[in-house]
Every structure is written in structure tokens, then in C-alpha cells.
Amino acid sequence: MYTPLTEHTVADYVKHTPAVWAVVFQPDDDLVGIDLADGNVNLVFRVHSAADPLGRSVIVKQALPYARIVGESFPMPLERARIEADLLQIEARHCPGLVPRLYHYDDDMHLCVMQDLNQHMIMRKGLVNQTIYPHFAEHIGVFMARTLFYTSDLYLPHDVKKQNMAAHINPGLCKVTEDLVFTDPYMDNPGNVWNPAIDAEAAAIRADDALRAEMFTLKYAFMTKAEALIHGDLHTGSIMVNADDTKVIDPEFAFYGPMAFDIGLVMANLALSHCSQAYHAPDAHTRATYQTWLTDTMRATWHIFEREFRRLWATDLNSQWATDAFREQYIKRVLQETAAFAAAETLRRILGLAHTYDLESIPDLEARADAERRALTIGRRWLMGYRQIESIDDLARVVTD
Amino acid sequence: MYTPLTEHTVADYVKHTPAVWAVVFQPDDDLVGIDLADGNVNLVFRVHSAADPLGRSVIVKQALPYARIVGESFPMPLERARIEADLLQIEARHCPGLVPRLYHYDDDMHLCVMQDLNQHMIMRKGLVNQTIYPHFAEHIGVFMARTLFYTSDLYLPHDVKKQNMAAHINPGLCKVTEDLVFTDPYMDNPGNVWNPAIDAEAAAIRADDALRAEMFTLKYAFMTKAEALIHGDLHTGSIMVNADDTKVIDPEFAFYGPMAFDIGLVMANLALSHCSQAYHAPDAHTRATYQTWLTDTMRATWHIFEREFRRLWATDLNSQWATDAFREQYIKRVLQETAAFAAAETLRRILGLAHTYDLESIPDLEARADAERRALTIGRRWLMGYRQIESIDDLARVVTD
């Protein structure tokens, strides 16, 4: 019974789904469906009441058997809708208010109906306009600490964790990351896209076997380090924000992987924004202020993550890990791996298939190349130096030096 | 229909199991069942033909819902019989001849019927008598290289490996290792047993937070590092040998864990034998010769493991890991982790619940304490120094220095 919805059918679908219709809308509402066409891989519709478009509305997100913007040549598993519905509920349990509300999941139609975040914007777009999000570090730091700690062996009984791991192997979407983040950018792969102005830098990275060895070591960790149920795609395009609030969306890449992959993606995407500000914030004062906010936010995100993680360690640790020295070794190791995975995300956004709006929105190829070279330098330093990182200041200094 | 077998019922069971009866025995054979009572956790029977006790015989190994030598206070999952049957078949595919032949698995009775290794002896017993096994290093090195490589992400397609991992989480038996190897020996746990002559050394280790931090880091790796389908219990009591042949038995602890756990257990149990020879080989020349064979065997085991692993890497690697520098980094990392897990096995055999015959068969407590102190020193050096190990000679030198 799986049928991809359209602008014309989606309103009817909502109207005949009591878990949505009865909860969100009023009996005499006329519903309007709009194809937002803003996901890379899924169908995404907004359905709103004609009488109150902002007040009474939902998002309908439906999986296709392939990636929407690429087409049928890039197959993707339909089960990602189930994973998203599952994760939204798990995340909401640990972090109420930091994920959109899930109204309904339809296993036959492979779709989720969820809260419409029409008072929020995609964080990446806000960063391009030098928007300050005063609560972001607090929200994302707590989100990561809680979702990662509470799904790990630090908290869960040994058997529950192993069963959760087995229930969340997600091979289809992991493969996308294994290829696009950790493999293809370092190979002669026809999917790679890069600015011709940095041909020399791209070739140098692809010829650097020491760098590639570190990258494959990270890929191996991504594939074998079953620490926690990670979000798996926590870049600034998966975060919606406003001045007061933060919502983490799009958890369909979730699986049991390395905690630092999530933290590293946040760090890397703040760094990519930092690189892009040379173009987006042409006024020197505005640029300096905003770049300082970005690196301050990197530090604050880690500090809040660490503070919350230590708090959970003190209150909710299971009894099997009771030594202080182990905790200190553990937290330092997560920080170092954060730099490593931040490197992987930074480099692949310049050299691989999927770039970011921060840099792609710079129309002049030479200006963009300057920003991209800075990003490559940051990524390379993080990657080749992560074992020497002792503090978040060491990590953030790589972006400003 | 699960019923524990007895000496009186086991022969009848075999006679009514065509996959055994028709394959191993002759139509007019009278069968005799004997309770070998030599497993720690299972019922183990030999069933042989009265006419040819050595020529026509099988082993029947049946799981109990608890550990046999402890009793019902130590529950163990019945599904370990299924895991053993599954693993014997997987191992036989990669290493024909290095595991006992499986004739029959009975899912209701939770038992396996397998080849009777009546021409072999448990390796640990042979080591106590200074027996030289000229082919052991070759056999065990190849066994480990092949079983570990062929079940890892180096060889398997990404999705097959993840499905295999999910199908082999084995929480019940992993918990035994998590507790008995990595946790209890470092706590004030009533299950711990140690020689009162080393009270001071035991207390010092339990008070050493830096050492305990390293041990918990290893435990965390054991629980989160899903590299390969490891044997999980590869000590010299799980290996049966004679002058020509080696058979690896008892794979019911198997799960996706760190490769180096298997290699480390082999190394540690050779080292424990080395420590015990001061008693078992009272003649100085015999002792020196045998101890040299033991450390030579440690080195040879690694060299053969590494040679075979590199051969498989060259011929059977999947396409996702193609850099030489990564391979070198990978092999060195496995060696270092081998020292680390060898340390865990060495220390827990002195301080925890389950000791080894090598040392327990030394009746004089002071003589035993001398050997145990050496083992503790070896374990501590491996544990606190494994990140500095660059070669197998570095690892083996810890035993002889």
C-alpha cells in the first residue's frame, strides 16, 4: 500500500489520520498541502489549516526508495522512516523539547507526521547571516550528553545495550556515511565535486597516504565502535533554531557508533561557517565578532556537554565503571576523537559529493577557494594532531590560528 | 522437551539420532556412555562403541541452565549450545581441520554431538609436563588470522558484517567475561580467590586507580569494539593438541569483539605456563629449554598470525581500505591491544574467581606465590606499557626480563 504522496493527496492523508487530525486541527479546518521540496532525500510536505496556517500545521516526511535529489540511481532504504520515528521518541525521552513532536508513524507508507517548526530556521542558514543563537550551546551540549550517555554501556544494563545495538544496525544509511564521508573523497571517485581552484590541494590530500591512513582508522572506528545510539548526521542542517529554542531533526542515520562522531559534526560545521564568514560578513568588525561567537560556541558546546556528561556520570552511572581515573581518561579520549571526526566532516565537505551552503553560496570561485583552503588546513591539523589535543581550547585554537 | 542427559540415557540418545548413529557407528555397535565431568559449565559425555572405544566414539556436550561446577546460583543461558554449533561451522569453513567436526545440534535439548578428540589432550595439561608442540604456533596463528579477518569489515560486505554482529550479541556469556575478567578481580568481590601469600600484591593492584582505569578502558573496548567474530575464550584449556594436530574447542563465548582479545589470551596463557615452570620443571636445563620454547612460541604465533593476516589482506581485502599506511597502523594497533588483553587475562587468573591448572597445581603456597608474583609483574607491565609496544619482541621480552 506504499504510495508516494503529492501536494494533492497529502492533505487528505492527514485528514484521515485521527492521531494527527484530532490532535492538531479543528473540525471545520480546510487543509492545504505544500511540497516543501527542501529535503535532499525525502518527500517533505507542510499541511496547514487555511484558517490558521502558522498555528495549526504539521510536517509530513515520507521516505522514497532512493534519494530525492539524485534519483533512482541512488537507492536508499525505506526503513529510514521507521528509524526516524523510533529515534524521535528515544530522543524525546532523554531530551524533552529538543526534538520535534512525533504525531504519527505509518509503517506501510514509510512516513512520519511531526511538529511543524515554522518558528525555527535551519541553523546553517542563520549562520550565513551572522545570527547569534544565545542558547544553542546549552541546548546541543545537553542533547548530546544525554542521548549519548543514556544509550551507552555507562548507563544501560549490559544486555539491554547489546539488544538495542542489534536493533539499530542501520546498514543502508551507515553505508552512505562510510562512502561519502570516509572513502570517496580520498579516492578518484566520479561522485566527488570540488572547486577547480583548489585542484592542487585536493590532489595533495588524495596522495597523502599518512592522512588517508588516519581517515581509514576513523572509518574503521565509525564501523566498529558501538558506544552509543548516535544521531549520525548532526550537522547544522539537521538543527533548527531560533533565539530561544533548538530542535534536532533528521535522526534517520542513527546507529550504535562513536559518541564523538556527533560532537565532531557540530564542531566541524561551526568551523565551516567560520571559514565562510570572510565572504558572508564583509564588514571586518561584524566578521570578527561573529567568528568569535562561533569559536566561543564551539568551546561552550564542549564545556556544557562535559558538565552534563559528568553530572550524569555522578548520578546515573551503572556500577561497573567506578574509578575516577577511568572517567578522566574517557572524557579526554572523547575530546580527541571529536577533533578527529570534526576533521573528517570538514574535509569531506570540500572534497566529496555533499557540500554545505555556507561555502557553496559564495559565488566567486576564488573567494570560495580561499575559504575552502582554510577549511582544508583546519581539517588536516585536526586529523593529524588529534592525539595531542588536551583541552577544548586546543581544539578551537586550530580554527583561529 | 529439554531434559539433561545422564550416563544412562546418553547412549540411547545417540542411537536414536541418525545424523550421528549412521555416520559414526556400525549397525551392531553396543554403545557405552561415560560422564566425563570435565567441563566447568556443561554436561560432557563420551559415547563409544564397546567393540572399538577409540575408533568409534563421539562427544555429547549439553548446556545446563547454570554453570555445572557452581550450581544454580550461577545461571548461564542454554542458548550457548546453539552458539557453539553455529561457531563450529563458521570456524570449520575458514579453518577446516582446526576445530572438531560437528555431527549434530539439537535445539530442543541444547546439545551438540561432535568429534571425540581422544588422540588429543588439553594443551594446558601438556604444558605442565613440558610437552613441545612443534606445529601449535602455525596452527593457532592461522586459525586466528583466518577467523578474525574473514568475519571483519576488512572482508565482509558492510551489511553482512552488521547483520552477523546483530546475530551474535551473546549477552549472557559476554557478561561472564565482563565480570570475571574485567571487573570483579579489581573490586572487593566475594567471588575473588587468591593465594593469601600475595595479599599485599593483590591489595596494591586493587588500590591502583591508574591500573584500574586501564583495565576499565579494556573492558569498555571488549564491550564496544565490534571488530570480528572472536572465539572469546581462547585460553590453553580451549585448545586440544598432539604432536601433529591442533583443535580449537569451546567457542560458546563468541561475539563481535576486539580481535586482540583472542590473541591476547593465547599469549597470556603461554606466559602463565612460563611462570609455573619454576615449579613444574625443577631441573634447570629442562626449565630453561621449555621456557625458551614458550616465548619462542609466543613470537612464532604472532609472526604466523601476522604473515597470514597480511596474505589475506593482499588477496581478500574488500575495496574499502586500500592504503598501505592504514594496514601498517592497523597491525601495530592489534599487537598493542594483544599485550593489553594478555595483561587482563594474566592478572585475573591470579586475582579473580577462575584460576589455571598451571599455577593451582603447585601445592606449596609460597612456591606458588613466587610464580604468581611473576605473573602479576608481567601483567602489570603489559597493561601499563602496551601503547609503547612496537614489535612482538617487545611483548615477549616482558615475560623473560
Proportion of residues in helical segments of chain A: 40-55%
Give the number of DSSP strands of chain A. 12
Write down the overall mean pLDDT of chain A.
Answer: 96
Helical run tally of chain A: 15
Widest sheet of chain A: strand order?
Answer: 1-2-3-7-6
Order of helices and strands of chain A: HHEEEEEHEEEHHHHHHEEEEHHHHHH
* Principal-axes shape call of chain A: globular
Radius of gyration of chain A: 21 Å
Strand content of chain A: 5-15%
Secondary-structure class of chain A: alpha+beta
| Spatial gap, N to C terminus of chain A | 56 Å
Which pair of chains forms the biggest interface, and how many residues does each contribute?
A: A-B, 41 and 41 residues
Largest sheet of chain A: 5 strands, antiparallel
The unreliable regions of chain A are: none
Oligomeric composition of the shown chains = homodimer
Explain the layout of strands and helices.
2 copies of one chain form a homodimer.
Chain A: H1 10-15, H2 18-24, E1 31-35, E2 42-49, E3 52-63, E4 66-67, E5 71-75, H3 80-94, E6 102-106, E7 111-115, E8 121-122, H4 123-128, H5 136-150, H6 158-167, H7 171-180, H8 199-206, H9 209-224, E9 228-230, E10 239-241, E11 246-248, E12 255-257, H10 259-280, H11 284-316, H12 324-351, H13 357-360, H14 365-385, H15 392-400
Antiparallel strand pairs in A: 1-2, 2-3, 3-7, 4-5, 6-7, 8-10, 9-12, 10-11
